[in-house]
Design brief:
The complex is a heterodimer of chains A (406) and B (254). Chain A is an alpha+beta fold and 406 residues long. Chain A has 13 helices and ten strands. Chain A has two domains: 183 residues, no CATH class; 177 residues, no CATH class. In chain A, strand 6 and strand 7 form a beta hairpin. With 254 residues, chain B is α/β, with parallel strands linked by helices. Chain B has one domain: P-loop containing nucleotide triphosphate hydrolases (Rossmann fold, 3-Layer(aba) Sandwich), CATH 3.40.50. Chain B has nine helices and ten strands. The chains are: A alpha+beta (406), B alpha/beta (254). At the A-B interface, helix 1, helix 10, helix 11 and helix 13 of A face helix 2 and helix 3 of B. The structure holds adenosine-5'-triphosphate and magnesium ion.
């Protein structure tokens, strides 16, 4: 039997049953596209969480005012007035596992430069703040210890703030801005960091000396939090313990008293989000497998529905001289065609949908070869099997039984 | 070997269907020779085994016991692929229910046997299919789909398909069973013309009227042949068609 003839036969059969072909393909397309999209979202968030967490500084430790039991963290850092600069000082002086410490205060402020104005958060920290938060300078400088001592009216701008006040690409260093009506000199510009996992723009910040913000803007002695950086990853746990000891001592807490502050390392947060992203990926993967299953059932369904019709067709073909092998090859060609084209369309659709989600939904997506292969192979296997199965069954029948099949 | 002139020779052919504990002897030791060039009509009451007999001779089904020689070849020794080649090249089978592929043009339906015959190339295939369709009077309907054809026309497509590989023998199981008188006579006309060219024809029919177009009539009863007689005053389709009322012809042929 000439394979050209069988291809011709398969081609004729496909073109005569466009609707059935379309429905079968649809199952494959949906299965493949949804798996690729789901896994792309899952993988994207996972990678995004990892990079934004490590960009926060992997060794950093934060002391929040208020304890977990008091609901302090839930209510937002700084809702409790328990931390003071003395706490930061004692950590810096006595904790042997940290190499950098910065008290942190913050205030939402109105910033004006010329005719432009912008609302953002002004963080007050020491020069160590930049190192601990992994903030790099794109232009200019960070503030000096004397700026800090003098509560100098200087500040460092994030890219978003600079763009909104001075325009795209302009270097603001040396200009003046008014923060809540107080004039500040811009001495530095931060490098772009982009969005973090929660969709927050990390470039929408201003950093000023701790003393300036605390005294000139907040007039308080309390802190929102204290940031510290452990000397190495191995020191993180020891550092947390020691910081807890030191702050308890400083706060003169008795043994039975609960902590009035909370110590968290970046690793703790990373672990929480790591497990969240694992759950998310699992969830998406299970939705994806359901889509694959539904796609597979769709293919199965349409194939089984057409078995009667196709068995009669096979009977006719055998009655005019088709061999079992001819019928099998014809059906395989059809199934391969459907699976292949359907799989291709599904891949393209999946990639486009993932792209659209990234573009309009602002979700990070990462398409992996694994997801493409997994969905393609599964759908193709379902398509091939259910395409081949009726042919295999019918080609073993007597022609007359195939003709009479109901 | 058996009768040297016989195209088909069957000996003690039997077919038993088992349904549960119950056995149906659809064919009960049938022995028969059919000569080359014969035109045989098989008659008999419903359930007497005519279709069973035809399906076995047409290599669509196999007997429970017995022997079957086609051109002296022991058919029951052949494997599935060799049987497929026989059905493709030597036998043209026509069914009561036409059994042509739906949504497939007359031309493509007739080309089908040639597609399974690797000795025929694409150009010959088309040529032969058109010739076969013309010979059954459908030269102007080759691109019609089955649902655009009348029952008689669909049956003629099936006949063209049976003819296209130049078979030795045409087997037809109630080919006129679903057709009116005129269409039936037209089919008989085609069969008689083919028979004149030397093609052997074996046909099952319920209508004594149609059986009269054959040369011999075989009677089945309870899976056995009870008579095998030459047809007296055989009808010629050409003449019978002339006798039909003229109005009817126009209604049907357009
Ligand atoms: N697949 C089958 N399974 C069981 N019994 C069968 C099968 N096919 C046919 N039979 C039985 O075999 C017998 C002969 O059937 P067959 O179809 O050959 O009759 P027939 O002469 O062609 O009848 P009709 O004129 O009605 O077409 C019947 O009794 C029928 O019930
Ligand atoms: Mg019958």
């Amino acid at each position: 039997m000439k394979i050209v003839n069988l291809i011709k036969i398969a081609y004729r059969s496909l073109s005569k049953n466009k609707f059935r072909v379309f429905l079968t393909m649809l199952g494959i397309i949906i299965g493949v596209a949804s798996v690729i999209t789901m896994l792309a979202i899952g993988e994207g968030s996972k990678q995004n969480i990892q990079t934004s967490i490590s960009s926060l500084g992997t060794n950093s430790i934060t002391v929040y005012a208020g304890s977990m039991n008091m609901g302090g963290v839930r209510m937002g850092a700084g809702s409790y007035s328990t931390l003071t600069e003395k706490d930061a000082d004692i950590i810096r002086a006595r904790c042997e596992y940290v190499n950098a410490v910065s008290p942190v205060v913050l205030k939402g402020s109105q910033i004006i430069a010329g005719s432009q104005n912008w609302h953002t958060i002004v963080y007050g920290g020491t020069s160590d703040y930049f190192a601990i938060r992994n903030l790099a300078i794109a232009s200019g400088n960070i503030f000096s210890t004397s700026d800090q001592r003098n509560a100098a009216k200087v500040c460092v701008l994030g890219q978003t703030v600079a763009t909104n006040l001075f325009g795209e690409g302009k270097d603001p260093v040396g200009s003046f801005v008014r923060i809540n009506s107080i004039p500040f000199r811009v001495i530095g510009l931060l490098e772009k960091k982009g969005q973090n996992t929660f969709g927050q723009d990390q470039d929408d910040v201003i950093v000023a000396p701790f003393s300036t913000v605390q005294k000139r803007m907040l007039s308080t002695i309390y802190l929102n939090s204290i940031l510290a950086s452990a000397k190495s990853e191995a020191d993180i746990e020891n550092a947390k313990d020691q910081i807890t000891e030191l702050v308890r001592m400083q706060h003169k807490l008795a043994i039975k008293d609960e902590d009035d502050f909370t110590v968290r390392s970046q690793a703790d947060i990373a672990n929480v989000f790591g497990s969240i992203s694992k759950v998310l990926t699992m969830l998406l993967a299970s939705i994806a497998s359901i889509s694959l299953l539904v796609g597979g059932i769709g293919i199965m369904n349409i194939m089984f529905v057409s078995v009667t019709e196709r068995t009669r067709e096979i009977g006719i073909r055998m009655a005019v001289g088709a061999k079992g092998r001819d019928v099998l090859i014809q059906f395989m060609i059809e199934a391969i065609f459907i699976s292949f084209i359907g799989g291709m369309i599904g891949i393209l659709l999946g990639i486009s949908v993932a792209g659209l989600i990234a573009k309009f939904g602002g979700w990070p997506v990462v398409i992996t070869m694994f997801s493409i292969l997994l969905s393609f192979i599964f759908s193709a296997a379902v398509g091939l099997f259910f395409g081949w199965y009726p042919a295999h069954k019918a080609s073993n029948l007597n022609p007359i039984d195939a003709l009479r099949y109901e | 070997m058996e009768n040297r002139n016989a195209l088909i020779s069957v000996k003690e052919l039997a077919k038993v269907y088992k349904t549960g504990d119950f056995e149906v002897h659809a064919l009960d030791n049938v022995t028969l020779d059919i000569d080359k060039g014969a035109f045989v009509a098989v008659m008999g009451p419903s359930g007497s085994g005519k279709s069973t007999f035809m399906n076995i001779l047409g290599c669509l089904d196999s007997p429970t016991t017995g022997e079957y020689y086609l051109e002296g070849m022991n058919v029951l020794k052949l494997n599935k692929n060799e049987l497929a080649e026989l059905r493709n090249g030597k036998i043209g089978f026509i069914f009561q229910s036409f059994n042509i592929l739906p949504r497939t043009s007359a031309l493509e339906n007739v080309e089908l046997p040639l597609l399974y015959n690797s000795r025929v190339n694409a150009r010959d295939r088309r040529q032969k299919a058109i010739e076969a369709l013309s010979s059954v009077g459908l030269g102007d309907r080759i691109h019609n789909l089955p649902n655009q054809l009348s029952g008689g026309q669909q049956q003629r497509v099936a006949i063209a398909r049976a003819l296209v590989n130049n078979p030795l023998i045409i087997m037809a199981d109630e080919p006129t069973g679903n057709l009116d008188t005129r269409s039936s006579y037209e089919i008989m006309n085609i069969f008689q013309a083919l028979n004149d060219k030397g093609i052997t024809i074996l046909m099952v029919t319920h209508e004594p009227d149609i059986a009269q177009f054959a040369q011999t009539n075989i009677m089945f009863r309870d899976g056995q042949i009870v008579s095998n007689e030459k047809v007296q005053d055989r009808k010629m389709a050409q003449e019978e068609l002339q006798k039909l009322p003229v109005i009817k012809r126009e209604n049907i042929l357009t």
